């Protein structure tokens, strides 16, 4: 079983739809992240949860709503998205202290039509 | 000023050569440095981490850190076509959960 698992791998949604991305980590980590990766741009940090508490919300529009019910699971709820929100959404986890790398899931390729 | 800067490339090297990838960062408080490899359509995969000045070797990979110059590099010896990917430099600042990524350097290793 891979360390960080994301579902679905691909998602096409209309601008009026509501969908959710799911992430699960099996590494025993206590911090989880959502990143957005658009073409030709650096990875953009969206949200960070540490011990199930949101510690970072990087000026993300409210049409993205994260949820972290426990240290192993992370969701990203999507509603009324725009075509420019089409991107690769990456979940990651780490152990909550300095010098420890983060590990990524396979990503969800989202297309908003 | 960007937190982490990398030349986007593409960097083309022949098979068997040494590929040299470079990264600079802006915050002197940065403590941890990482290189990730990302194949097209895939997620980033950690290949090296370095925390103190100097060189760190792992197989064909060597990471180099110079905190005074705020510079991190990755050398890939005996480059293989399978090394063709985008290499992301990441920096962790003194806040444990802030990881900043460069935009990546695309490496092409030609057979």
Radius of gyration of chain A: 13 Å
The two chains with the largest interface, and their residue counts, are:
A-B, 27 and 27 residues
**What general form of chain B does the structure show?**
globular
Strand content of chain A: over 45%
Mean pLDDT of chain A: 90
Q: How much strand content do the residues of chain B show?
A: over 45%
- C-alpha Rg of chain B (nearest Å): 13 Å
Instruction: Give the number of helices of chain B.
Output: 0
Question: What is the tally of beta strands of chain B?
Answer: 11
What value does the average pLDDT of chain B take? 93
Tell me about the largest β-sheet of chain B. Answer: 6 strands, mixed
Description:
The complex is a heterodimer of chains A (113) and B (111). Chain A is an all-beta fold. Chain A has strands at 4-7, 10-13, 18-25, 31-37, 44-50, 53-57, 64-70, 73-79, 87-94, 103-104, 108-112. In chain A, the strands form two sheets. In chain A, strands 2, 4, 5, 6, 9, 10 and 11 form a seven-stranded mixed beta sheet that branches. The N and C termini of chain A lie far apart (33 Å). The model of chain A has no long low-confidence stretch (mean pLDDT 90). With 111 residues, chain B is an all-beta fold. The chains are: A mainly beta (113), B mainly beta (111). The A-B interface holds A 31, 33, 40-43, 45, 48, 50, 55-56, 88, 90, 94, 96-107, 109 and B 2, 4, 8, 31-32, 34, 41-46, 49, 51, 88, 90, 92, 94, 96-104.
Supply the key terms.
heterodimer; A: 113 residues; mainly beta; seven-stranded mixed beta sheet; four-stranded antiparallel beta sheet; 57% strand; globular; B: mainly beta; five-stranded antiparallel beta sheet
Summarize the structure.
Chain A is an all-beta fold and 113 residues long.
Write the layout of secondary structure elements.
The complex is a heterodimer of chains A (113) and B (111).
Chain A: E1 4-7, E2 10-13, E3 18-25, E4 31-37, E5 44-50, E6 53-57, E7 64-70, E8 73-79, E9 87-94, E10 103-104, E11 108-112
Chain B: E1 4-5, E2 11-14, E3 19-25, E4 32-38, E5 45-50, E6 54-58, E7 61-66, E8 71-76, E9 85-92, E10 99-101, E11 105-110
Parallel strand pairs in B: 2-11
Antiparallel strand pairs in B: 1-3, 3-8, 4-5, 4-9, 6-7, 7-8, 9-10, 9-11
């Amino acid at each position: 079983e891979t360390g960080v698992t994301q579902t679905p791998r691909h998602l096409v949604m209309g601008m009026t739809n509501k969908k959710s991305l799911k992430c699960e980590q099996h590494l025993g980590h206590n911090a989880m992240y959502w990143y957005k990766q658009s073409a030709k741009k650096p990875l953009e940090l969206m949200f960070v949860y540490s011990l199930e508490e949101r510690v970072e919300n990087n000026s993300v529009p409210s049409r993205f709503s994260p949820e972290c019910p426990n240290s192993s699971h992370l969701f990203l709820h999507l509603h009324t998205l725009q075509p420019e929100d089409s991107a690769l959404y990456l979940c990651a986890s780490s152990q909550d202290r300095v010098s420890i790398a983060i590990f990524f899931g396979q990503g969800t390729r989202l297309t908003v039509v | 000023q960007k937190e982490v800067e990398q030349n986007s490339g593409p960097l083309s090297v022949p098979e068997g050569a040494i590929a040299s990838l470079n990264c600079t960062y802006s915050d002197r408080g940065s403590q941890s440095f990482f290189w990730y490899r990302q194949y097209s359509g895939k997620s980033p995969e950690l290949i090296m981490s370095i925390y103190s000045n100097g060189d760190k070797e792992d197989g064909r990979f060597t990471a180099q850190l110079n905190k005074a110059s705020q510079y991190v590099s990755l050398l890939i010896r005996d480059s293989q076509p399978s090394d063709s990917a985008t290499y992301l430099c990441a920096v962790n600042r003194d806040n444990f959960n802030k990881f900043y990524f460069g935009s990546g350097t695309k490496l092409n290793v030609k057979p």
